[in-house]
Amino acid sequence: MFLSGSNVTSVAREVEFDGGRHSRAKLGFIPMSTDLAAEGDFADMAPEGVGVHITRLKSEDYTTNETLARHIDTMAEAAARLQPDVKPDVISYSCTSGSIVNGEQRVMDEIRKGAPYTQPMTLVTGVIDALRELGANKLVVGTPYLDEINTAEAEYLLEKGFDVLDIQGLNISNGIEMGRVTPAYWKKFALEIDQPEADVIFLSCVGIRALEVVEEIEEVTGKPVITSNQAQMWSCLRRAGIYDELEGFGQIFKCRGSFET
Description:
Blueprint: E1 25-31, H1 38-45, E2 50-54, H2 65-69, H3 75-80, E3 90-94, H4 96-102, H5 104-114, E4 119-122, H6 123-133, E5 138-143, H7 147-159, E6 163-169, H8 175-178, H9 183-193, E7 200-203, H10 214-221, E8 225-227, H11 228-239
Helix pairs in contact: 4-6, 6-11
């Protein structure tokens, strides 16, 4: 029994250590402060032994090319906050449109400034990885964005060598509202924009709840569906050397990944 005024003396023990809870890999993500979907999606997709570390990028709840361009100003600082002691294997900027507006290389350079030990990534890099892995050529794209952002995204996809058969947005500028669009609506929207000659349906934006209906859409259309969060997680896992074939998140997780890291 401990008595007031006594000193504690612990018995010497042989303590047992292992690789920790997340010994297989650790992934870092930098979503917008207004995002309502990413953290839940990442948690759902993370395999056993893989840690997900998140820090928020201060952002305005009004999504335009102008406001997205400001994300770069604090990218390095955000990357530096992502568990520097455990050193995530990969750190990804989790904004599709922001990756395009700011430029992949510029974003990755800023992440390296804050976290020089990691593999830097952007969300749209993961999307391109996934589309190429699936052998996609012709796309239909659904987004929640304003058309100024849709135009920038269409130009980017063309530059990457894809044919954009159609890109349609919901013209929502508010990030909170993007996260409140129902999964059932994303399924309906995807089926509306699909075209017979499209190889892949791409539902773009980290803050939307499309992951929940990916396999339902694939079952109806018979073709792969890519969402921003799903493609980003798949690419980050493969870059970290994790090749699990996850169930419930679309055809892409049956693919090992053949891109260069």
